[in-house]
Amino acid sequence: MNDLSASATWGDTAEYFMARQESHRGGVFPVHSHDHFEALLILSGRRMQHYGSSEIEANPGSLIFTPPGLRHGATIVGHTASLSIQFNLKFLHPELPADAQRLWSHPSTLSAAPELLPFVAQKQMRYECDPCLTEKLQGIWTSLIERNGSQSLGAEQYARAQLSILLLEVVEAFESEIIEVAEMEQHEGASDKIDELRQFIDANLAERLSIHEAARHLAISSSCLAARIKRVTGQTFGELLLKARLQHARELLIYTDRRVSQVAFECGFDDHAYFSRRFRQDLGMSPLEFRRRQLSEIDLSAISAQRH
Q1: Which of 41, 105, 235, 289 could make a disulfide contact with 83, Cβ separation 3.0–4.6 Å?
Q2: Would you say residue 3 has pLDDT above 80?
Q3: In 3D, which of 292, 272, 121, 111 has the Cα closest to residue 191?
Q4: What is the SS3 assignment for 124?
Q5: What is the rounded distance in angstroms from the CA atom of residue 283 to the CA atom of residue 298?
Q6: Burial, 253: exposed, middle or buried (Cβ in 10 Å; 0-12, 13-18, 19+)?
Q7: Could you give the 3-state DSSP secondary structure of residue 176?
Q8: Is the pLDDT of residue 304 over 60?
Q9: Can you give the pLDDT at residue 285?
Q10: Following DSSP, what letter does each residue of 250-271 receive, concatenated?
Q11: Residues paired with residue 29 on neighbouring β-strands, in sequence order
Q12: Is 172 exposed, middle or buried (CB count within 10 Å of its CB: 0-12, 13-18, 19+)?
């Protein structure tokens, strides 16, 4: 499904950096996590990025920032092209102590590495670049890809400096929004509770979940949880739960041969007809139509890869 170009790494196992251009055909990327930071600039096509039960739509000019350890997936609509950078904190700021990677979102680490602020804010805001900013970022990105893995004198230091400039360009362009979200992240641990809630939902999709059960699991009141969900995500508990169930259903339809009724049951839908109706409302097609279309695109991609 993927075409990767200009990919290489510098440094030993403690330092990691990679810059490349990616091309993806339509399909679903299962939920996963990684131990590095990843930034994407969408050049063409449409992508739905999933963070637990939240969803971010990305179009040309959109930026996506995924921090280490965050479980995420994606739905690719049609054909997309994007620029990608992956790195760890040891590469960006080798002078920071070893535990800074684990504590990357701590205020002391962010003070020393403000380039990481876009990763703090991603789950609660969309980064949509104007043409001028898109062109500027694309120029830096292309320069990094061209020099990626180069053994020439100073190449690694150049990449580190350019990576810092690229991220700081984003910080400067979205400064007010990023600061607002970062301050909210530190307020009463609101986002931590929402992360715990998303993990609880993901682990219990097949069950009959209620906000009262979720609140009991998180050791807070139902009313407090409802208000916190609304403040952090702009959604209700029911909306978060439905998004998580439909995302898992999309993965099961593509990567398993289970019947639609079984998929519905495993995703917490007791009524097969209700599941099909909500699925059509979300994606504009029935579960069976979605499965046939996605498998067809995967087959065509495989045939194309064999020819090349």
Answers
A1: 41
A2: no
A3: 121
A4: helix
A5: 18
A6: buried
A7: helix
A8: no
A9: 93
A10: HHHHHH----HHHHHHHTT-S-
A11: 74
A12: exposed
C-alpha distances (whole Å) from 23 to each of 84, 151, 207 are 10, 26, 37
Length of the chain: 308
Q: What is the mean pLDDT of residues 14-37?
A: 89
Q: Is 106 left (phi over 0), alpha (psi -120 to 50) or beta?
A: beta
Tokens representing 34 are 């990684």
pLDDT, mean over the chain:
85
- Model confidence, pTM: 0.62
Does the pLDDT value for residue 137 go beyond 90?
A: yes
Query: Does residue 300 carry a pLDDT above 90?
Result: no
CA–CA separation, 16 vs 287, rounded Å?
Answer: 40
- Say how far apart CA 26 and CA 298 lie, in whole Å: 8
* Least confident stretch, 46-55, 90-99, 193-202: 46-55
Spatial separation of the C-alpha atoms in residues 149 and 20, rounded to whole Å: 11
| Chain centroid, CA 226 distance in Å | 24
Q: Look at residue 191 and tell me whether its pLDDT is greater than 90.
A: no
Q: What pLDDT does residue 52 have?
A: 66
Q: Which of 36, 7, 37 is nearest to 115 (CA)?
A: 37
- β-bridge mates for residue 48, sequence order: 57, 75
Q: Which residues are paired to 221 by β-bridges?
A: none
* 42 closest CA partner among 60, 28, 22, 21: 60
Residues 179, 171, 34, 301, CA torsion sign? positive
Fill in the amino acid letter for 174: F
Listed in sequence order, the residues at least 6 apart from 22 whose beta carbon sits closer than 8 Å to its beta carbon are 2, 3, 4, 5, 40, 81, 82, 83, 84
pLDDT in tens, 76-129: 988 899 999 999 999 999 999 988 888 898 888 888 999 999 998 887 788 999
The DSSP 8-state label assigned to residue 284 in this structure reads: S
Q: How many CA atoms are closer than 13 Å to the CA of 38, on its beta-carbon side?
A: 22
Domains in the chain, start-ordered, CATH in brackets?
2-186 (2.60.120.280), 190-303 (1.10.10.60)
